[in-house]
């Protein structure tokens, strides 16, 4: 078996524009699990918004959540090694965003928070309804009260149609925070030490799998550290230019069946290699 582990981003990668996994891709992921591949999801989402998809795919491995801020153990329902944003830094950052009139959404221990209703926060609430999960979405108009009620903060998402403003914001805060574009109009901000790549490396070490035996699929700049941490980095056709630049392979966009088709090739190759080793051993 050339590869032993498979890691999949959700939004823009495994999920299509209807926030669903098409059956070709879904069946291929389940097949990989059945054939003994270690498979997990790595997303900017909190675990509550990942669990229904993990169940659909028969995934049992810890999930990499909020861009690697924590892993969620499906067997114990425990967040593993969470890297929350330090309270003082959080206060300074949220004041900066508020003063700059940036809309933002806070993903935290006690729910998902915003200062005011927005298209983004309404979209999250709608997704919760569709997935039938309680996301504890709360609008708290006072910033100090929001920080107090949120508890440990895992991620802040800043949606903005002005991509140049997001790039400038990322530059201004990059010395103190990890800030990546999940799409051209969404900036994900986490603790400096958090990334999908670091969480992925930790998971692979726990599994006893070398990084060159792992495959990762992604589309956004927040997937870059993840793709750089595996032997087979795969980008979607809709991926950012910088992510395509580090990928070994570019497959169909997230509305297509490229993930399923490629996974079946990997599984078939693994079966062929195993059969070849068996024949060689018997011949000797």
Order of helices and strands: EHEHEEEHEEHEHEHEEHEHEHEH
Specify the helix fraction band.
Answer: 25-40%
The CATH homology group name of the largest domain: HAD superfamily/HAD-like
Integer-rounded radius of gyration: 19 Å
Number of helices: 10
- Tell me what the CATH architecture of the largest domain is: 3-Layer(aba) Sandwich
Number of domains as seen in the coordinates: 2
- CATH hierarchy class name of the largest domain: Alpha Beta
Number of strand segments = 14
Q: Give the overall average pLDDT.
A: 93
Oligomerization state: single chain
Structure description:
Residues 274-284 have low confidence and may be disordered. Strand 3 and strand 4 form a beta hairpin. The chain has a 6-stranded mixed beta sheet with strand order 8-7-6-9-11-10, with helices on both faces. The protein has helices at 23-34, 51-56, 87-99, 119-131, 143-150, 163-173, 196-207, 224-227, 241-246, 258-283, and strands at 5-8, 38-41, 63-65, 70-73, 78-80, 105-108, 111-114, 137-139, 153-159, 177-183, 186-191, 214-218, 232-236, 249-251. It folds into 2 domains: 5-81 and 194-283, HAD superfamily/HAD-like (Rossmann fold); 87-191, 2-Layer Sandwich (Hypothetical Protein, Haloacid Dehalogenase-like Hydrolase, Chain: A, domain 2). The chain is globular. It is α/β, with parallel strands linked by helices.
């Amino acid at each position: 078996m050339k590869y032993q582990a498979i890691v999949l981003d959700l939004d823009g990668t495994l999920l299509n524009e209807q926030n669903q996994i098409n059956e070709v891709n879904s069946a291929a992921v389940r097949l990989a699990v059945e054939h003994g591949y270690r498979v997990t999801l790595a997303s900017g989402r909190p675990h509550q918004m990942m669990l229904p998809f993990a169940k659909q795919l028969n995934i049992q491995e810890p999930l990499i959540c909020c861009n690697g801020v924590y892993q969620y153990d499906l067997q114990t329902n425990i967040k593993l090694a969470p890297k929350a944003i330090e309270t003082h830094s959080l206060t300074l950052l949220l004041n900066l965003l508020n003063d700059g009139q940036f809309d933002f959404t806070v993903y935290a221990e006690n729910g998902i928070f915003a200062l005011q209703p927005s298209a983004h926060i309404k979209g999250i609430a709608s997704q919760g309804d569709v997935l039938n999960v309680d996301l504890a979405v709360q609008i708290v108009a006072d910033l100090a009260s929001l920080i107090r009620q949120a508890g440990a903060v895992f991620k802040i998402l800043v949606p903005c149609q002005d991509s140049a403003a997001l790039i400038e914001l990322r530059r201004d805060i990059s010395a103190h925070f990890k800030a990546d574009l999940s799409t051209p109009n969404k900036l994900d901000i986490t603790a400096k030490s958090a990334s999908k790549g670091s969480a992925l490396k930790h998971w692979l070490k726990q599994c006893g799998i070398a990084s060159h035996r792992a495959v990762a699929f992604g589309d956004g700049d927040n997937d870059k550290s993840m793709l750089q941490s595996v032997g087979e980095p795969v980008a979607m056709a809709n991926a950012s230019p910088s992510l395509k630049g580090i990928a070994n392979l570019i497959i169909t966009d997230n509305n297509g069946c490229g993930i399923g088709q490629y996974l079946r090739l990997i599984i078939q190759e693994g079966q062929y290699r195993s059969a070849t080793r068996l024949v060689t051993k018997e011949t000797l």
